[in-house]
Amino acid sequence: MSSLGTLRAIFDAWTGTVAGAAVTGLERMVQPRLVRLVEGETGAFALEAARPDNIPREIAFEDGKFTGANLASVVRGCRVEIVLRPARFLFRPLELPARAADFLEGIVRAQIDRLTPWSAAEAVFGCSAPVAQGAESITTMIAAAPRRLATSYVEALSGFHPSAIAVLTEAGEGGRIRVFEQKSRGAIDPVRLSRTLQLVLAVAAIAAVLGSVVAGYLADSLSAQESELDRQITQRRAAIRGADGGERSPLALLERRKYDTQASVIVLESLSRVLPDHTYVTEMHLSGNKLQIAGITRDAPSLIPLIEQSQHFTRATFYAPTTRSPSDPGERFHIEAQVEPRNAP
């Protein structure tokens, strides 16, 4: 067997064990109600149920069907035990070594064709609990019957969807012997659960591999982006530091802009020195090297030469008509001028 086949066998065995343990634990936690049908000497069955409300105590079995009661509401989801008369079975005692107690079912299956007229495929069979006969041997009672006998009762009840159906018989002092058991399709199947577990684990493994590949790709992509950002940051820092010291360095350009652009404070200070005391500026707009002012004065035309006399302003002119209102103490003017930068010491 190849290594792959060995691993597959180990994996199947492991999932089968886990599924079997899960089913066993679930069945112990959620145990269905028990309904028992006990066959009497007349062939009718006595019904033993936990809640036999409005159900006859005796049910007949005719033409492969249980008649005389609606069993659907009684056996649905329950465990049904059909106890048949001992007269329908063949009983054989079997003596075995004491150490064979742990393998009793397999031993009986291997010898059923020798102990009964039927083979293991043609019969339903079971054995009672072993009884010690001294220190070296044990005895057990084997009960067997044709398989079609059990399947006729099982098929009659399967349509009512019980959780499980078991066929038993009385063995005198040995108690009852179970010769057949079938779980319904609705019950949890360990084989199906094992396959589902294998599928889930396979999907989880594929998802883990894909996740690892995607994580590696994203890590490489993020690392490349981080390297690019570091390179750009290094270039920006070198440009800001102005390592070459030339006129095109950021610091030199910033210094030039400082002296080429007129400061608002200096413009305001220059206007306050140029304009006479009877002039009031109500609006001032400074956009680049262009200044616009508006206000009230006694003699608007005299403001033009006063402004141009200053070393900070040139080309002063009215950009709107001069008006006078009865409520104003003088003329309302609108003048614009070109600002000459004088920030250098």
Question: Would you write up a description of this structure?
Answer:
- The protein has helices spanning 3-29, 72-75, 104-115, 147-158, 190-241, 250-260, 264-274, 303-309, and strands at 34-39, 45-49, 58-62, 65-67, 79-84, 90-97, 123-127, 131-133, 137-146, 164-170, 176-183, 280-287, 290-297, 313-318, 323-324, 331-339.
- With 345 residues, the chain is α+β, with helices and mostly antiparallel strands.
- Strand 8 and strand 9 form a beta hairpin.
- Helix 1 crosses helix 5 (190-241).
- The longest helix has 52 residues, at 190-241.
- The chain is rod-shaped.
- The two termini are 97 Å apart.
- The model has no long low-confidence stretch (mean pLDDT 80).
Low-confidence stretches: none
Bin the strand percentage.
25-35%
* Span of the ends, CA to CA: 97 Å
Radius of gyration: 53 Å
Tell me, briefly, the overall form: rod-shaped
> How do the strands of the widest beta sheet line up side by side?
4-3-2-1-5-10-11
Q: What is the domain tally?
A: 2
Count of distinct strands? 16
CATH topology of the largest domain: Nucleotidyltransferase, domain 5
Helix content: 25-40%
